[in-house]
Amino acid sequence: MSKTIDLGVEKDHIESLTRASGISAISELIWNSLDSDSTVINIEYQKNTLGGFENIEISDNGRGIDYKKAQEVFGRLGGSEKKACSISPNGRQYHGKEGKGRYKALALGDLVTFTSIYENSNSLKEFSITFDRNHLTHSEFSDLKSLPKGNTQTGFKVLIQNIDQENANQALDIKTRKELEQKFTSYYLSYPDFAIFVNGNKLEFESLIKNKAETEFLLEKDNLSYKFQVKLIEWKFDIKKKTYLCNTKGIPFRELNLGIRSTIPISIFVQSIYIENLQRENKMNLVEYDEHLQAALTEVKKFAKEYIRKRLHYYSTEFIDKLKSRGIYPYKEKAENLIEESKRQVFDIVALQVNEYLPDFESQDEKSQKFTLSLIKEALEKDSSSLQRILTEVIELPIEKREELVEILQETSLSSIIDTMTEIKNRLKFINGIEELIYNKDENKNVLERKHLHKILINETWLFGDEFTYGVDDVTLKNVLKEYLKFLGRDNFEEVIESQPNDDLQIIPDICLWRQYPQGQPGHKTNLVIELKKPKLDAGVEELMQIKLYASRISQDRRFPKEKTKWKFLLITKDIKSDIEPELEQTNREYGHVVATEFYDVYVLTWGHILNLAKTRYEFIKEKLNLNLMDNEKNLDYLKIKYKEYLPNKTE
Q1: For residue 383, what are the CA distances in angstroms to 334, 420, 423, 437, 597?
Q2: For residues 610 and 214, what is the distance between their CA atoms, to the nearest angstrom?
């Protein structure tokens, strides 16, 4: 007859122990099996007709647990035979000691049945214990029964029902298996006599390791020396890069972020009796405040960085040899001096990163690959920080590579590339910040065109194209003409200005930009005249006539150069009034192109359109750089800090 045992603990406390992620819950059950000296652990699950999990079963061939001891262990919270001894009968070091991990099984399902088969007086006994989320303060014990002779296999089985679908999916997803393999590898290296199967598929450990490295060092504390052994594992697949704090046998007690930038998939296992002591003293959640352990982790990071540098050099050598054999390596001559040697080393590592992070590089034809490599070589040799050049040639370098490459390639010409990568990120932040400033009603109500937007944009002319350079702002068309003639190198600009009346050139546009190098037909230039409107003002007939007037005055004045020169007039506003909307949508013209002549074009565009064009130009950059951009509110903070003197206060 079954019996109910009261745990003697409040329900809320037990409930807190059942909260765990799917991967944490399934890991705890695996650890329990390993602690019982299991050599085979089977995780089986069944799905229903809707594709959800019907039940999950974890079984092993371990020692099981006898009935009397189970009542002590499962009959009270914190009961565990592992407290009295840290080593299993077969010599494995125990993972758990508090007897609380079993409750994590309830994170996978609301009904959990533990079945133990153990040897007693030359026969096998069997019984079950049930946990029910609806009755957390109690555990149900079945009667003890003897198994028929002929049964020889001991073990433990956990049957989970009433499944939590989200946690179960996280625990048993095919991607999760890589995380399980990563987590249990260090233990496997110490105790390789076990196997784990998920629905018949064996988890791999040794075969997934690409390379290993080890080191050890001593740490002094209170006149005692503690040895730290560091095992670094490089994987054949991408993983969540973690540092594991382990006991001396590789059983992890705490996971930490790797703490360094690495595109090489590595895990670091730090093993020490010092870490065991922290676990024993329940201080694993306070390791960030342990100065001695932090000193040890600093040494670990140095070791890892050196490993990464050496492996990158190794991989680049292998990759470069292939390029050379195919005849597409851009350096044909042998390096004659240290400078030439350094250039090649920088190129080799950057080229390797392009190969790894440019998705279609490997599939490109030989001519395209050769061209890409030549561009990289040119950029590195000239130490160019030109945005246009970097965007074209080195844009495939992911953002997380910046700090890593700075460490590896310090004091090299790569510094200019790194600076440009920072500029790219700042531009993306600016786009998002200005969008928030204009379209957030709480922010835009006091923003004016000349006092605020105007002052910001004269420093961010790239927003309208990197081909433009600043010309003039907030001056009459007369002075626009004067400055443009000076830009062209005309010595007689004063004479030209005064050669006829300037009454029609007294109107004042906001910003004028000159194209700093020709595009399209050789020798042809396009200049940009911009009129801004504050966010509270939508463009209508009056605003349209204003930008057309600028165009008319310049086009009719023969002093403005027109040979091989085109003028583009752009009105930018938050929104467009319906009465001029038809002019923005004309047949055979792009949206917003309201006037097209031989000498000039007039555009009326919203800020949304302008910013979306800029975003489109940079969207692929964000993806390739894997930029972790902030939300628009935080990008607005960036804008406010950079242009504090040009932005209104809330009280204005």
Answers
A1: 21, 11, 16, 36, 42
A2: 54
Closest alpha carbon to 560 in 529, 532, 531: 529
Q: What is the largest CA-CA distance in the chain?
A: 119
Task: Give the distance from CA 157 to its chain's centroid.
Answer: 39
CA distance linking residue 342 with residue 319, whole number of Å: 17
Give the residue among 524, 550, 536, 535 at the shortest CA–CA distance from 603.
550
What are 8's two structure tokens? Answer: 């003697």
CA-to-CA distance for 531 and 509, rounded, in angstroms?
Answer: 6
- Residue ranges in the chain whose pLDDT is less than 50: 79, 383-399, 402-403, 405-418, 624-628, 651
AA letter at 187:
Y
Q: Are strands 525-532 and 565-573 parallel, antiparallel or unpaired?
A: parallel
Residue 393 pLDDT: 41
pTM of the model: 0.51
Task: Provide the residue count of the chain.
Answer: 652
Q: Which of 143, 471, 457, 82 is nearest to 279 (CA)?
A: 82
* HEC readout, 455-493: HHHCCCHHHHCCCEEEEEECCCHHHHHHHHHHHCCCCCH
The token pair that represents 522 in the structure block? 């050789």
User: What single-letter DSSP state applies at residue 347?
Assistant: H
Residue 231, SS3? strand
Question: Is 229 in contact with 255 (CB distance < 8 Å)?
Answer: no
Residue 126, both tokens: 């069997």
- DSSP strands (E only) in 266-414: 266-271
DSSP-assigned letter for residue 630: P
Give the DSSP letter of residue 254: E
User: Which residue spans within 564-628 are E strands per DSSP?
Assistant: 565-573, 593-596, 600-606
- Residue reference for tokens 């809330």: 650
Looking at residue 396, its pLDDT comes to 47
DSSP states of 113-163 = EEEEEEEETTEEEEEEEEEEGGGTTEEEEPPPEEPPTT----EEEEEEEEE
Taking the CA atoms of 142, 146, 147 and 153 in sequence, report the sign of the dihedral they define. Answer: positive
Residue 153's contacts (CB-CB under 8 Å, 6 or more residues apart) are 61, 117, 124
What pLDDT is recorded for position 523? 62
Q: Which among 103, 106, 256, 112 is positioned nearest to 167, based on CA atoms?
A: 106
Per-residue pLDDT at 381:
59
Q: β-strand 155-163 against 145-146: which pairing, if any?
A: unpaired
* Per-residue pLDDT at 211: 93
Asked whether the beta carbons of 428 and 463 are under 8 A apart, the reply is no
The structure tokens listed for 416 are 């200019």
Burial class (CB in 10 A: 0-12, 13-18, 19+), 298: exposed
Task: Return the number of other C-beta atoms located less than 10 Å from residue 585's C-beta.
Answer: 12
CA 608 to chain centroid, in Å, comes to: 27
